[in-house]
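User: Please predict the structure of the protein below. I'd like the answer in structure-token form so I can feed it into my own downstream comparison script.

Assistant: Understood. Taking the following sequence of 115 residues as input:
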Amino acid sequence: VQLVESGGGLVQPGGSLRLSCAASGFTFRRYAMSWYRQAPGKERELVAAISSVGGSTNYADSVKGRFTISRDNAKNTVYLQMNNLKPEDTAVYYCNARWEPTNYWGQGTQVTVSS
């Protein structure tokens, strides 16, 4: 099983990034997918989640209206489009796959928002 995140980097405030998470080794379409983040000294928090067929999404209040989660079950990939980034969005972003009781995590990708 692998979840490989990509697309992180350094961006100025107000900028955009698109994170991708490529999945392999399990039946992707059965799993709800989520993005979490963890900033230094803080607990990991849920950023956005999408249901297995993509019909339902939810977001942390702090990112509503700025971030969009989507998935392509044909490509076994989940995305996080992040717009109007703020310094407080700086964190390591993790991809998560969940189909109870199974739970998989990626290794994370760093997002730094700074001028």
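That's the full token string. The mean pLDDT is 97.
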